[in-house]
């Protein structure tokens, strides 16, 4: 009957708090899965990379940095460099194709936006290998595209398959959606009134793009670029199929050491070293991803 | 178990007892049971007389007691299992072979496939068991013997294997001939488009020397993999393909790098289709594949195939039984079945690679047995060499050279 009894129940402040409502151990199954199937293989790789070889396909578990020292060879440094250059070329091509597509989807489409988005993702539903084989047919020097190019006179000899160009085209094609989606998202979130204001104040359309649209979508663009660059570096199938086996990507060399030479320690060391190198790019990616979260339009 | 019949022990030596036991089971089964051992073996004897290549052992002096076989022959007298698990290259055996084996032995066959020796070795080294039959190439056999992963074959259970030509029994990769029966063999050769390539190369060295010139004109192809590229180059330079001499390996590396600009593709799996479509003007190939390319280009007639004069690679795929095989008796029966000349003939017509059993080769159609690309004359194969994996160091050195070659 006193005033205390009318006070609201004590539960209410708890309801408003941001503290999690369920005990943390409920995520244990997911964490265990992650540890066994994600961190586990990584740990095995690290153990292998400091082991030494003891005959075919077997290793003796020691601690030796000899594998990493063997990596410091002009040959493997060249392979690393070539891989990153090819991936950079592929990324540049992906941006050149992907950015305009994302821009067009976001700025020009209204009714068919979802359909366009779907069409970008649809190729991802088919097997990666089959799509790469299909690309081989399109790029064939005796195929329809070659006949068309030669007919139009753009080039007298369409000889793209089994060259670096074919590898770059294959890389760009296979990873395009991974770039379009984040760029599209950042374009969608952009306030187009800013561009309108810029043109009202006398900026040319190009200047408005350069000074407003591009900086505002840059975090999305960088995110997308790294999202395609990193897996491109680890590519194994595309250089084999479209490059005719004459491009040694890091993935190719790791593969031939693991399978062909059964040299697991060296293959592991190469994988670890390349992972550390790529981590630098991942750090950049994370930096931009968080920045986008904070300042994204 | 089978009852002992003293009469038979007088007639035949003890060593062949397991063979007789098996024969009896076979005949009993196909005859629908209900016959004595003597009747069954008598019937088998008649069948044996008709079959080729089974003389030898059965006629050698007899005697011996009725006791069961010793430890040297652990599989003797054991009944055939009801399952057989084969781990094989895909589409490498005629479907009728499986059918006839199943009906004759009442064994259920399960088969899975791999696409390279690397895949097979990786699977076995990762602890893959449960296979009864595997089909490794010569280099993998050598390695598996070193690792102790193969079962010593019980030749008494594979009587048909005695018909395999002697030069293919004890081979460089299996000096005792105890661990494999050759399934089929082939060689690495080269071919060129005779409307474009005007020189007439006859050796592998001449083939390599033409690459820089024709790589600019059209597509050229080498067989892929460190175990092909490096040893083949060594052979072209006149060295042992399995050498570990750093100076020789270095020379091979420099030679490969000097012709690198003339190589358009390094590929062993797609070249048949591409060459059949006329896209390769100068390339290496395995003889069975080159036969297919030639027949695909029959109308144009623009492909010339060359078996290198001096030396090249010969290779063999082999029937082996892993040491861990759960159904070893059935596995031996399978190998024996495949060495049956009648089966070998249909096999050769199916996969187009020769099986070194003369009785079977003689029965193949004329277009096969008279074709040097199929029945490669021994005048060539005698000079050809097996590419092996002699040691891990050599394999590593080859892989490094191959990486340098690829990335050049």
Total count of domains of chain B: 3
Work out the strand percent of chain A. Answer: under 5%
Mean pLDDT score of chain B: 85
Strand order of the largest sheet of chain A: 1-2
Largest interface: A-B, 29 and 34 residues
Overall description:
The complex is a heterodimer of chains A (297) and B (408). Chain A is 72% helix and 1% strand. Chain A has 297 residues and is mainly alpha-helical. A two-stranded antiparallel sheet of chain A has the order 1-2. In chain A, helix 5 packs across helix 9 and helix 13 (250-260) runs antiparallel to helix 14. Chain B has 408 residues and is α/β, with parallel strands linked by helices. In chain B, helix 2 packs across helix 3 and helix 9 packs parallel to helix 17. Chain B is globular. Mean pLDDT of chain B is 85; it is low at 1-12 and 48-71. The chains are: A mainly alpha (297), B alpha/beta (408).
Throw out a few tags for this protein:
heterodimer; A: 297 residues; mainly alpha; MetI-like fold; two-stranded antiparallel ribbon; 14 helices; 72% helix; 1% strand; globular; B: 408 residues; alpha/beta; D-Maltodextrin-Binding Protein, domain 2; 3 domains; six-stranded mixed beta sheet; three-stranded parallel beta sheet; 17 helices; 9 strands
